[in-house]
User: What shape does this take?
Amino acid sequence: MLVTPAHADVAPPESPPGSNIDGNSESTQVRMVAETVTLTISEYPADKAIAMAKTEAVFTMRNLGTVEEKMNVRFPLSFFNGDSDGFGNFPEIKSIEVKINGETVPTRKEIQLRYDSEYSYDEREEIPWAVFEAVFPPNQDVIIEVVYNVQGFGYYPNQAFKYVLETGAGWKGTIGSAEIILRLPYEANKKNVWVEEVSGYTEPTSGGVFSGNEVRWKFEDLEPTYESNVLFVVVTPSLWKKVLTETENTSKNPNDGEAWGRLGKAYKEVILAPKGWLRGDASGVEMFELSRTAYEKSLSLLPNDPLWHYGYAELLWSHYYYSVYWPGEPDTQNELPALLRSLEIALKLKPDLQEAKELLDFISAMIPEAVQENEDGSFTMLGLTATPPPPTPWGGYLTPTALPTLTVQPVTVPTVTASPAPSEPTTSNPLCGSAAMILLAFGIVTSFKRKVN
Assistant: This one.
């Protein structure tokens, strides 16, 4: 039976989403005239592989009736519908600040019992809410501000954040206007903010307008439902800062091969999912080319560095396996021979380079026609000379290719006895690729965090 790579997975666990305030009154005359929600993204102090968002929500409320209304306004501190984070956990926002017309007001925690959550078919589910008292005089605007921090969720290199608009349905009429602002610590663009479907998540909210460090979504006369809730997916800030740093380094020092290698690796980490395939949107394709160019520039300056050869091969393998081999496309870029040649050079330069051996072992398991593992632990690169080339899973054959000439300077390969193996990676010569290999084999996926230098 032919098994193709899965392109979907259960969603990663979520942190408590932000939400509209809820008046908890079916007969209220108070309308949410406007709301502006700003999510300012930053690194999570305890773990740079995670992001956090300072969420500042400002609500303009107006009592359209003729009498004053005094009520307890609520804000959910966890999943208001009683569902878990997807793994049976119920994370909770720990700290929240509320102001009414500029004055801080006290909040108290209350528990609502719910009967219809995913884990409570026959039991009551306890939902925590922050509750505060508000007074709404007739025909007057009341400004409510809610501020809290929430941790992102998802698998590195991406982080996702939600904002739930549907809880605002309890107020009078529609929400007059709602503006959601995503603010990054650097320029926002389609490389670091997803605008298309993300594997493992639901589809991110479309229609955002990019401007400087922000992306803005605007809604008018909104009757909020479940479909109104918004989802944002961003590249983990610590990783995108590496891209910016190494871009600047290569601009200032264009002959710094290490900087070019680090830039290639940073772009590769941005586009390489835990399951092993690369981002397929237009920005992902662009960053693949940027990564490949950076690696090739690095190898032209440092042709005898086995680690950058391995990192380059890992990039090409991910693209070849998921974008060429499985779809049955012709290998017009000669990626298979190029990556095998780079791995061959890496092992000649450093015979004990374990990462290269593991990648070749994986290739031999996935495409035995391309790499043969020998009894002594060495490898025969069948894909360098195979005519016809290895068949695709669909029974066709890749376009025959001659042995390529890599776009790097000629490499003088030392013998093991004549030239000592390069030293282990240091902070000035980081590992070119992830120490963890792609662990997707016939539908079995193992999640991992890619090593971050």
Residues 282-301 form the longest helix (20 residues). The helical segments are 237-252, 257-271, 282-301, 306-325, 335-349, 354-366. Residues 1-11, 395-453 have pLDDT under 50 and may be disordered.
